[in-house]
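just leaving the lab so this will be short. what follows is a protein written twice so to speak, once as letters and once as structure tokens for the fold. can you read through it and tell me how you think this chain folds. thanks a lot i owe you, the record is right below.

___
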Amino acid sequence: MNVRRRSISGIAVTAATALGLATLSACSSDSAAAGSTDKFDVVASFYPMAFLAEQIGGDHVNVTSLTQPGQEPHDLEVSTKQRAQLEESDAALYLKGLQPAVDEAVTQSGIRTKIDAASLTSLEEHGEEVGGHAAEHDHAAEEDGHGHDHGGEAGGKDPHIWLDPVKYAEVAEGVGKAFEKADPDHAADYKKNTEALVKRLGDLNTKFETGLKDTKTKVFITTHAAFGYLAERYGLTEEAISGLDPESEPSAARIKDLANMAKADGVSTVFYETLVSDKTAKTVAKDANLETDVLDPIEGITEKSRGDDYFQVMEANLKALQTALGAK
């Protein structure tokens, strides 16, 4: 288990973070909405899915994302217009369990090709239930309007598979095969593009393996429990500090626990996200005499992101981790 709850009370999972989508080069504009082009029209649920569709589809696809730039993906509500886009499209690419409204809309739609990324790799549970917190989480989830969980608590599966390049590559291979089957006229190109993407993800995995192999500590602190797969892949341990409210201040006791843990494990940095307030991270860091930095869960790309696409932001994440963990 790579997300520890050793001494930190509460549910160490934040509510979803306000991250959105940057415009993708293959994404549709308002004048070329899903279903109205001569290309293979794909509706993607949010950035990591749209990025796969763009990379694999290349010039043959028209990608429309249901999650707009700056929009928080977990809390997405699907509009009537978007439901109509789904009906007119050739394929829907989504990650079941992350966005309940999307799951429902895709299930109810008559779209021919429905690609669930969660079915293309293995999902795992990250985090440990502490005392009665599982029930507390379920109640909180109901109150914030979601039946899903943020990060794999309370018996749910962690949906953040794209933060593990190996799992993301497995999903890419499945998406490529689905595109080949749904649009056979361009199957050869989809296959070629998929192979190229999988190779890039393999290279990224190697960079992470090499870059994080020899570090002073293996523990890192985040305000969002999104990095369970990444931690597991590279032998690290994620300590997530916030509750369901990403901007809530931790109690004095929690801060003390974190300070003690940080000292014991040689932790130097508290990570926060680009588009979420760094208030919690700075509160913890100040009391524990730690640094703060950004670790991006890449649920979307905006002008504040440390890069223009998935690969650039992942490499920025690697550098941040290397610095925080004391890579040798």
About this structure: Strands lie at 40-44, 61-65, 91-94, 113-116, 219-222, 237-240, 269-272, 291-294. The CA atoms of residues 86 and 97 lie 18 Å apart. The chain has a mean pLDDT of 81. The first strand starts at residue 40 and ends at 44.
